[in-house]
Write a structure and sequence with these properties.
Blueprint (H helix, E strand, L loop, with lengths): L1 E9 L5 E10 L4 E5 L6 H8 L7 E6 L2 E2 L5 H5 L2 E4 L11 H6 L8 H6 L4 H13 L16 H13 L5 E5 L7 H18 L2 E5 L3 H7 L2 E6 L2 E6 L6 H7 L10 E3 L5 E3 L5
Parallel strand pairs: 3-8, 3-9, 6-7, 7-8
Antiparallel strand pairs: 1-2, 1-4, 4-5, 9-10, 11-12
Helix pairs in contact: 5-6, 6-7
């Protein structure tokens, strides 16, 4: 349903942020982007949501090419979960979730916070999907924990019936236990709504645990595209070969190879 055909992004200084990448992502797939800092993950996600038009090649959503002319139309079919979340702190959890549909709601309804019963029911259903209790609905977003706020952001992303949800480092600031819970919520929502998810992570062990498919980039080039089971030691060493750090902090991958934490950022 999402195709990237020989896409490249070349900056004015000649840097190739993305270098001749081909991808065909199926509906409902939970894909994780891996790669060191500067690998091109953010640029690739920008191409998918139409914010970056490739210098070369094409991006197609359900066979329709994304261009500057139809970008706004196609962007409505792609939701984003930002690392900074961008929730409205003083607004209730319920209204933060409904805000995911603001582009389809008349301005006067938004200003008066007058939402339809169907919108409120969908928001409640989505919050239940991510394991937020009914007692949280009318709390201000600022009163929630980091993990709870991330679940609100997930529910908001699914509010407008998107075909694709992009998640940019959604658990970067969370502890491992909370991270695992949040990623479980994101994958469960993907399954329940048959929505494609492309999630950028720096924790390799979470990529292996949750991904249907891992897409690994290095210096803009595709170095791996396949099942988590195929992520061998040699692929990992190649992916992070020149991003070594003297730090002793490390995380384990499936084969128990230790990869320095600093290279995952």
């Amino acid at each position: 349903m999402l195709e990237l055909k020989s896409v490249s992004q070349v900056f004015p200084d000649g840097t190739r942020a993305i270098d001749n990448v081909d991808l065909d992502i199926k509906k409902g797939e939970f894909c994780v982007l891996l790669g060191p800092s500067g690998a091109g993950k953010s640029t690739l996600m920008g191409m998918i949501n139409g914010l970056v038009i490739p210098s070369e090649g094409d991006v197609l959503l359900e066979g329709e090419k994304i261009t500057s002319r139809n970008m706004k139309h196609l962007q409505h079919r792609v939701s984003m979960i930002h690392q900074q979340l961008h929730l409205v702190p003083r607004v209730s959890v319920l209204h933060n979730v409904i805000s995911g549909k603001l582009h389809t709601i008349p301005t006067w309804r938004t200003l008066l916070r007058h939402f339809t019963d169907s919108d409120q029911r969908r928001a409640c259903m989505l919050l239940d999907d991510v394991n937020l209790e009914e007692s949280q609905l009318h709390r201000r977003a600022s009163a929630l924990s980091g993990g709870q706020q991330q679940r609100v952001a997930i529910a908001r992303a699914f509010m407008p019936f998107p075909e694709i949800v992009l998640a940019d480092e959604p658990v970067a600031s969370l502890d491992p236990t909370t991270s695992r819970s949040v990623l479980s919520s994101l994958k469960r929502a993907s399954r329940q709504h048959n929505t494609t998810v492309v999630c950028s992570l720096h924790q390799v062990e979470f990529a292996i645990e949750f991904a249907d498919r891992i897409i690994a980039l290095r210096k803009g080039k595709l170095v791996y595209d396949g099942s988590p089971k195929g992520m061998t030691d040699s692929i990992m060493q190649d992916l992070y070969a020149h991003n070594r750090s003297p730090t002793n902090e490390s995380i384990g991958v499936a084969t128990h190879t230790l990869i320095p934490q600093a290279v995952m950022a």
